[in-house]
Amino acid sequence: MSKKAKFGYFTLLLFFYIGCTGNPFTENEVIPRNRQIQGSVILGDGLGREGVYVWLEGFNIGVRTDPEGRFQITLPFSASSNGLSGAFYLYYYVANFDLAATEIFVRNGELLYGMGEINSSGQLNAPKFLRQSLQIQTTLQPTTVSLSELARPEQPFIDVRCEVVLRSFVDSVIVYFPDKVDEFGPLLFRNIATNQIAILNSVLSESEVSDLDTITVTPTVRTMLVRLERGSLAAGEYEVIPFLLVKNPAVPTKLLESLGPAIESLGPAYLEIPFRRQGVNRFLTVGE
Hints:
By secondary structure, this protein is mainly beta. 10% of the residues lie in helices and 40% in strands. It has three helices and 19 strands. The strands form four sheets. The chain has an eight-stranded mixed beta sheet with strand order 9-11-16-14-13-17-19-10, with no helix packed on it. A hairpin with a 6-residue loop joins strand 5 and strand 6.
């Protein structure tokens, strides 16, 4: 059944019950004045639950899960005054995981508990599970450099090798590499302490690599060489992040827009897209 048809069916059913019984539940139950949904999320990589973006369509409300994977969505009071009613989807989004959703029902701006996956207390009946669709594994060599090394007149630079391994699970995944020009591609260096971003260009060791790849269960490897010179980075610890986008037509455009402007452009806003990246050697320490 289409979403439009489902909405019409739900609305018709709701008004039928109101007309016949005065209450869409049992005779002794009273529809609670409810505005909150609570629940939790489990990610299939088993590496933690924090940072999943949970977004409610129609209301354009988005929150991120805490370290235990928990979240809470609260409907605004304006929804009641506007008499907003219908069926809506609550989406759970991490860019390199399958998109998941829960259908919820609203009448006059208030949640109808005890329907679908929402129990009578406004909680998800069970944690929502997200299957990983794409693994992003990053390895650096070396993982430690010093500014004093960059001051040597005989070789005032250090080449850092960044290997990015992409692998899908079950289904193929379309990955786009924006701002790739010929054999060059950018990398983001996120300072762990300040969260500031430095963008450095890298040379792809395989010049034939395109800016659009279909990733399968057979790993795709991109080797990127970054030349660090004095002034490239300040002292500190950095997470090295490959600049890529996962093309998933199932993700609503309004969900992506709710994350902020220019999130798919090269810059700090890109980090607003929730990703799960792996690799213990994806961090670079720059010493004095």
